[in-house]
Amino acid sequence: MQQRTSQLETEYEAYKKTIKGCPFCPVRDNKIKAEYKYWTVVYNKFPYEHTISHYVIISKRYIENHKLRDITSEEREELFDIASTYPEMQFEHKGIGQQSINHLHFHLIKYE
Fold this sequence. Notes:
Elements: H1 6-18, E1 32-35, E2 39-43, E3 51-59, H2 73-84, E4 90-92, E5 105-111
Antiparallel strand pairs: 1-2, 2-3, 3-5, 4-5
C-alpha cells in the first residue's frame, strides 16, 4: 500500500482538520496542472513516498468515491483520455475504505 512519509502524513492529517466539507468542492489549495470539461488534474500536495511525480485527477462533479459506476460515458471517456496523456505514470484508484477523501478521484503516479 502506498504511504506518505510520517512527516507528510502528519501534515496531511492536520490539513484535513482545517477543511470544512469536501476538500475537493471546489478544488482548493492545490496547484492545477490541467483543466478539462469533467475533471481537474492537480499536483498532489501530500505525495506518496518514493514518487517522482504525483497528480490527482478530481471529478468536477461530486460523486462519492465508491460510486465509480455513477460516472457518465462522457466522463469515463475523458478520464481515460487524460490518463493516456501520461503514459509514464501509473493510473490508480483505491477501493472502498482506502481513500481518505470521499470525492471521486484517481492518482497518476511516477515512482522512483
